[in-house]
Write a structure and sequence with these properties.
The complex is a heterodimer of chains A (426) and B (462). Chain A is built from 17 helices and 3 strands. By secondary structure, chain A is mainly α. Chain A has 2 domains: 62-185, no CATH class; 205-422, MetI-like (MetI-like fold). The radius of gyration of chain A is 32 Å and the shape is extended. The relative contact order of chain A is 0.10. Chain B has 2 domains: 3-157, no CATH class; 213-456, MetI-like fold (Orthogonal Bundle). Chain B has 16 helices and 2 strands. The termini of chain B are far apart. The chains are: A mainly alpha (426), B mainly alpha (462). At the A-B interface, α2, α9, α10, α11 and α12 of A face α2, α6, α8, α9 and α10 of B.
């Protein structure tokens, strides 16, 4: 007996021999899990900081001070709106740098100032026509190349042939700098302009308004209809084949890729109903169809969380089924429904794929003034700018992303706040 | 009469009928011995009449808004001389556009055709008549409805039941919209796809190995063959989705395991929402990030190692797409892991297993159907994802499994085929709908399969 015991290890020894290895495995497994989480969190930090670092400089824009002589020979007092303001800027630059003689160099010199500057001058004159004949020091936007140089995205150390700007241009900028005639201004135009081919005068207002119109349409349609559908399915529907189909349908629609909704919008709204292309109206309709399933699903969950005793009490004191739902259940489920709707709206705001299908990628300078005007949306604007080759647009893209993310954080924050404030556990 | 005025009149009629019905209920109620003697509460009488007043006129208004442009266009066109009227439809559309522009006071210089000018006046006149008829019809209908409603009013009127029936129909209508959407998707995609398959055979589309949708305009043009073999496009989609799943599944699953089995309550409460932020970031942001930061990084790293990396490599798009999907996999896995009852774990601990052994041998097998279902849903997401691949993956349809080369995907092709000027009859445009049909079918079957697996293999615990 004792011989056998000597030869065969007891269970206890087997276990304790393997124990160290197993604990090590356990530790490794735990570390693996932790690193998975850390990976996601690190990526999040990396994503946000890279976008911030790429974009925060876009909120400031280089401006140059030039002395403009508002020449009465050029400006007609009776009709100051249509004068050659670009000529005024050219004259002013020529006087500032009189020794530039070559045609090619002059052209480069004029390129320092943004094309949008003539509008700045026009606005000054229109506001106060009495300055015609005087010389004024005016701050005007610099061209995006100058802006990039000032923000040190253009490397001065590179040989001249590899640089976007030649030595002469850099000298001009340094001259301006020495005279304190070049500085960063807060980039108001970014928030008040529409799109533009010139990075320095491109802004997000047009896209933001387009997004707002679309969200308004989506909300007006999706909120009542989504809640109506949820109430019917949750409170009234009898279990039969039709309600089964509706239910399966809604769950499937929630998982259909968003681009397919874009195809639907293109084929049905644009080609069949002949609604205008690129209009927020169509975009809103497409986003409505896309967010509807999500809103229905979250609203149903909210209705389910209201305990049956509320309904029974209402029915018990003589309310009809409809009264019980609309007077008692719905108000209690409303916070949950609102949360779901806001989250759905946030998703609709960030969505761009279906909008590409219905022509909202057009280059649109004007700020839309109605839901039938051509417009673009904030995420689509980001997509458009991301495709532009100029270095300055990279910066704008990141800035526009920051604005979009701010909107999303605000919306989701509201949803979280609503949930924590009004959530009731029964 | 302009639209705002019409709306105001309509609204005031509706509110008048509501207050009248309510007042009527109060006065008749007091005659028969108190409001409580009536069948319905006074507000329901008001609502019933308001509905009578509003519904017919709103219906007419709605139909009118849709029908009017078409009717007016056809009337204007038929008034034109035969020489214009017999033009092909596309030219006719242009003429109609000119007429509309003229009637809005826009002209594009040059000589204006007097016939068009006349037509544009006729157009304006028709529009005016249309507005008049519309306003007249709407107001008369609402007044008729209002009077008909008044006629109904009596102390024994079961107003509430009528109102509730209308509300019920409204609710049913709301839930039917989801069905109409699906039908709309299927029909619109199917019709265009069928037209495509009349020009390109199904077999060629599904099995041919070359995808080059450029159609030649001239017969002798080079490099514009117009071949629609979708295999490379699918292969590209599969490659990118596979890379995405290689990132998303292990990381998502391990995060879920850690959060549900190891993490303290406080850590779970902070880490989970933070990771879920990743799901809320718009895909266009990921696309920008992939194209601007990740793709150049991979390219430089590859070049440093002596590899040839395309600047639009499948790897960059797939990696970022995988990161986007992590929270999706994580929350599904977290839900199923939490649904595994504690008693199973306790049994395993009781036998002396460590936590990781319990997870690997007990919890994961028990949660497997749910996890597999979740992964299938994630795959369908990856296949349907658009913006990341549009911005970071390529356009050329290479048939390759090398993740360092550029490939294209179904969604990229749909977007490129449909952006920009399109003739609606060319196979190039229709091909997008054929791809859309395939995308819809594939994602739908993946979803149904996922639901089926979850339902069929779900362990029922008490």
């Amino acid at each position: 007996m004792s011989d056998k015991n000597m030869k065969r290890k007891t269970t206890m020894t087997i276990v304790s021999e393997g124990l160290a290895k197993r604990y090590k495995k356990e530790k490794r497994f735990k570390m693996l899990g932790l690193s998975a989480i850390l990976f996601s969190l690190l990526f999040l930090v990396f994503l946000f900081s890279s976008i911030f670092l790429n974009g925060y400089k876009a909120f400031f824009q280089t401006a140059v001070q030039i002395d403009v002589f508002f020449d009465p020979a050029v400006l007609d007092v009776k009709d100051p709106a249509t004068a050659n303001y670009h000529g005024l800027i050219k004259t002013s630059l020529r006087t500032a740098f009189p020794d530039i003689k070559k045609r090619k160099d002059k052209k480069k010199l004029y390129g320092i100032i943004s094309n949008g500057a003539s509008f700045t001058l026009r606005d000054i004159v229109l506001e106060n026509p009495s300055i015609i004949g005087q010389t004024l020091s005016v701050w005007v936007l610099a061209d995006d190349d100058i802006d990039m140089l000032m923000k040190s995205y253009i490397d001065r150390e590179l040989p001249e042939s590899d640089r976007r700007m030649n030595d002469m241009q850099i000298d001009w900028v340094d001259t301006f700098k020495a005279q304190n005639r070049i500085k960063f201004l807060f980039n108001i135009g970014f928030f008040t302009n529409g799109d533009s081919r010139e990075p320095e005068s491109a802004g997000i207002l047009g896209a933001t308004i387009g997004s707002m119109y679309m969200l308004a349409i989506t909300l007006v349609l999706a909120f009542p209809i989504g809640i109506g559908a949820a109430i019917y399915l949750e409170e009234f529907a009898v279990k039969n084949w039709l309600t089964d189909i509706i239910e399966v349908n809604i769950n499937n629609l929630a998982a259909v890729p968003s681009i397919v909704f874009g195809l639907l919008g293109l084929a049905v709204f644009l080609n069949f109903f002949q609604l205008p292309r690129s209009a927020p109206l169509v975009g809103g309709l497409v986003l409505f169809l896309m967010t509807l399933p999500t809103i229905i699903i979250t609203s149903r969950v909210a209705l389910q969380s209201v305990p049956p005793s509320i309904r029974e009490a209402a029915l018990g004191v003589g309310a009809s089924k409809m009264q019980a739902v609309f007077h008692h259940v719905l108000p209690l489920a409303m916070p949950g429904m609102l949360t779901g709707t806001i989250i759905g709206m946030a998703r609709a705001l960030g969505e761009s794929a279906p909008l590409l299908m219905i022509g909202m990628v057009a280059f649109i300078v004007d700020i839309p003034s109605s839901i039938a005007d051509p417009a673009t949306a904030l995420p689509v604007q980001i997509y458009l700018w991301a495709d532009s080759p100029e270095r300055a647009f990279v910066e704008r893209t990141s800035a526009a992303i920051m604005v979009l993310l701010t909107f999303l954080i605000l919306m989701n924050g509201t949803a979280v706040y609503l949930r924590s404030k009004f959530e009731r556990r029964w | 009469m302009s639209n705002p005025i019409l709306t105001t009149i309509l609204l005031s009629l509706i509110s008048f009928s509501y207050s009248y019905g309510k007042k009527f209920a109060f006065t008749t109620g007091s005659k028969v011995g108190g409001v409580h003697k009536l069948h319905s509460r006074p507000a329901y009488h008001g609502m019933l009449i308001a509905l009578w007043c509003a519904l017919p006129s709103l219906f007419i208004l709605f139909v009118w808004q849709f029908a009017e442009p078409a009717i007016i266009s056809s009337m204007v066109l038929s008034s034109l001389p035969d020489a214009i009227n017999t033009l092909p439809p596309e030219r006719l559309g242009l003429v109609l556009n000119d007429i509309k522009n003229l009637s809005m006071g826009l002209s594009f210089g040059g000589q204006i055709d007097p016939q068009l000018l006349k037509a544009s006046e006729y157009y304006l006149q028709l529009q005016q008549t249309g507005i008049n008829i519309k306003s007249g019809a709407v107001i008369i209908l609402s007044i008729i409805g209002l009077l008909a409603g008044f006629k109904l009013l009596s102390p024994s009127l079961r107003a509430r039941n009528h109102v509730e029936r209308v509300v019920r129909y409204f609710l049913i209508g709301c839930s039917l919209i989801a069905i109409f959407t699906t039908i709309g998707i299927v029909l619109s995609v199917l019709f265009e796809a069928l037209r495509f398959f009349q020009k390109v055979s199904v077999a060629e589309f599904l099995f041919s190995l070359t995808w080059s949708p450029q159609i030649s305009i001239r017969a002798d043009q080079v490099g514009a063959s117009g071949e629609f073999g979708a295999v490379p496009v699918f292969a590209g989609t599969m490659l990118i989705s596979a890379i995405a799943m290689l990132v998303a599944v292990p990381i998502g699953l391990m995060s879920a395991i850690y959060l549900s089995e190891y993490a303290s309550k406080r850590m779970r409460a902070t880490a989970k929402p933070l990771i879920e932020i990743l799901a809320g970031v718009p895909t266009v942001v990921y696309g920008f990030f992939a194209a601007l930061v990740v793709a150049p990084f991979i390219r430089n790293a590859g070049t440093a190692m002596g590899l040839e990396v395309s600047s639009e490599s499948a790897l960059a798009a797939g990696l970022i797409m995988g990161i986007m999907i992590i929270p999706f996999v994580m929350s599904i896995a977290d839900d199923v892991i939490n649904a595994v009852p504690q008693s199973l774990r306790d049994g395993s601990y009781g036998l002396g297993a460590t936590k990781s052994e319990t997870v690997k041998n007990v919890v994961i097998p028990a949660a497997l159907p749910g996890i597999v279902g979740g992964i299938l849903l994630a795959v369908s997401r990856a296949i349907g994802e658009t913006m990341i691949v549009v911005m970071a993956a390529g356009l050329s349809a290479n048939l390759t499994v090398n993740p360092l080369q550029a490939v294209t995907t179904v969604t990229v092709q749909i977007v490129t085929l449909l952006i920009g000027d399109q003739e609606f009859d060319s196979p190039k445009t229709l091909a997008a709908f054929a791809l859309g049909l395939l995308l819809f079918v594939v994602t739908l079957s993946l979803n149904i399969l996922a639901l089926y697996i979850v339902r069929k293999y779900r362990e029922e615990y008490e």
